[in-house]
From TrEMBL:
Cross-referenced Pfam families: Transp_cyt_pur (PF02133)
Listed GO MF terms: cytosine transmembrane transporter activity
PANTHER family, alphabetized: CYTOSINE PERMEASE (PTHR30569:SF0), CYTOSINE TRANSPORTER CODB (PTHR30569)
InterPro entries noted in UniProt: CodB, Pur-cyt_permease
Membrane topology per record: Multi-pass membrane protein
Major place of residence: membrane
UniProt protein name: Purine-cytosine permease
Keywords on record: Membrane, Transmembrane, Transmembrane helix
TM region positions: 15-35, 41-61, 82-102, 114-135, 147-167, 187-206, 218-245, 265-292, 304-329, 335-353, 373-395, 401-422
Length: 435
């Protein structure tokens, strides 16, 4: 479990999030990264325990709170967000492919005249590699994970050495963000929270196979936290080091491919980035396939994996249409924070507070059973989620939160409270009707 969750964050997206946080400055970025990641992965441990206790995937667990049919909502949201993460890692890796084509064949880089051709070829190449990686189902995914994690560790150590040969730690800590590009602390907290909470809804998918409580709770927390702190730190210092060396800070150049090129790491670094995309996307594809299978139980896992691989290829082209990967990435994180936070709160409140850490697992698939509610849907959970998502959008308009602690965790707290009290009101009305 520890290795699995370190591997989940040992990817291109984590480097990129570190580069994005450079807009806060070194010290504030580290504080935000530690605070937001630690709190996010507490939720990972809580969901991990539910998986251990029930032996059911996260989306299967959501049937208890949202209803058997109502669980289609969190499943579809989970499906879309892991499609999105697959696209994020694919786009970054495709950038590496375009750099390879530039170095080997002289093709223009993306962002320059004629550079679209290299990116299109890169996306196609990465999509083919992803399809090959999932062709044998979970066994090939395990193989990709084992090989990829070794390569990515070597690359990160190599990049760290190169960075500190280029600039000193004192220079990095003293670097000042240009005022017009500075990111507020609250926005940074929300950005990191959205990045980390994306893994929470996949927690039970893995911990349901664990034999010990500590393997389902402590190990995912420590592994995910270690992975995100280490790899985001590398992205952070690499981005700042380039800004210091070049005298120009551009948050759009925070992706690992651009960083590797500017640091002079060579072709081998680009190849490793491509391979690590496959490592990260092995988890993303598996989680998306699992969510799709909850909505369409007759689909085999392999069929689900093929569907998500093809859809993620199409989604990867969105940043090219928008003209900015950073713009698309931040918008995607805002979407995750808005829709996932309330779902996670509802699941956790339902299990720990309303059901006292116990579910009747056999009823999770039974029509007219304990978790059928009204025609298979718990409308209280749906309504609480809608309120939570709307509240997230409204709270984002408050400058005081954007400049302090952000809105994500406040929104999650309020969403959980709303669900708890609305369910309590509903149960009291039922008892009165019976009496």
């Amino acid at each position: 479990m520890f290795a699995t969750w370190v591997g989940a964050n040992a990817n291109n997206g984590t480097w990129y999030i570190g580069g994005v946080l450079a807009a806060c400055g070194f010290v504030l970025a580290l504080k935000v990264l530690l605070f937001s990641s630690t709190l996010s992965y507490v939720f990972l441990s809580l969901v991990g325990f539910i998986g251990y206790k029930t032996g059911v995937s996260t989306m299967g667990i959501s049937r208890a709170s949202f209803g058997i049919r109502g669980s289609y909502l969190p499943s579809l949201i989970n499906f879309t967000q892991f499609i999105g993460w697959t696209a994020v890692n694919t786009f970054i890796a495709a950038t590496s492919v375009s750099y390879l084509l530039h170095d080997l064949l002289g093709w223009p880089l993306y962002g320059h005249a004629g550079g679209v051709k290299g990116m299109v070829v890169g996306i196609i190449v990465m999509s083919i590699l992803h399809i090959i990686s999932i062709s044998s189902g979970s066994r090939s995914i395990q193989l990709i994970e084992r090989i990829g994690i070794i390569l990515v560790f070597i690359f990160v150590l190599w990049e760290s050495i190169v960075v500190f040969r280029t600039v000193s730690l004192h220079q990095i800590t003293a670097w000042q963000v240009p005022a017009h590009l500075k990111m507020n602390s609250g926005v940074a907290v929300d950005t990191v929270a959205a990045f980390n909470l994306a893994w929470v809804t996949a927690g039970a998918d893995f911990t349901r196979f664990t034999a010990k409580k500590s393997s389902a709770t402590i190990m995912p927390f420590l592994g995910a936290l270690f992975g995100v702190l280490w790899f985001a730190f590398i992205g952070l210092i690499a981005t700042i080091s380039i800004a210091i060396a070049s005298g120009v800070y551009d948050p759009n150049n925070s992706d690992p491919s651009t960083i590797a090129s500017k640091l002079g790491l060579g072709l081998l670094a680009l190849i490793v980035i491509i391979l690590t995309s496959m490592t990260a996307n092995a988890v993303n594809l598996l989680a998306a396939g699992s969510a799709l299978s909850n909505v369409f139980p007759k689909l085999s896992l392999k069929t689900s994996l093929w569907i998500v691989a093809i859809l993620s290829t199409l989604v990867t082209f969105i940043p090219m249409i928008l003209g900015s990967f950073l713009t698309a990435f931040i918008a995607f994180l805002d979407y995750i924070g808005m829709v996932l936070g309330p779902i996670i709160s509802i699941i956790i409140v339902d299990f720990y507070l309303r059901n006292k850490k116990s579910y009747r697992v056999s009823d999770l698939t039974v029509k007219n059973g304990r978790y059928w509610y009204s025609h298979g849907i718990n409308w209280v959970a749906i309504f609480s989620w809608i309120l939570g998502a709307a509240l997230f959008f409204l709270l984002r308009q408050l400058e005081v939160l954007n400049t302090t602690i952000g809105v994500t965790f406040i929104d999650m707290l309020i969403s959980g409270i709303i669900y708890y009290f609305l369910m309590g009101i509903g149960e009291r009305k039922k008892r009165q009707n019976v009496n």
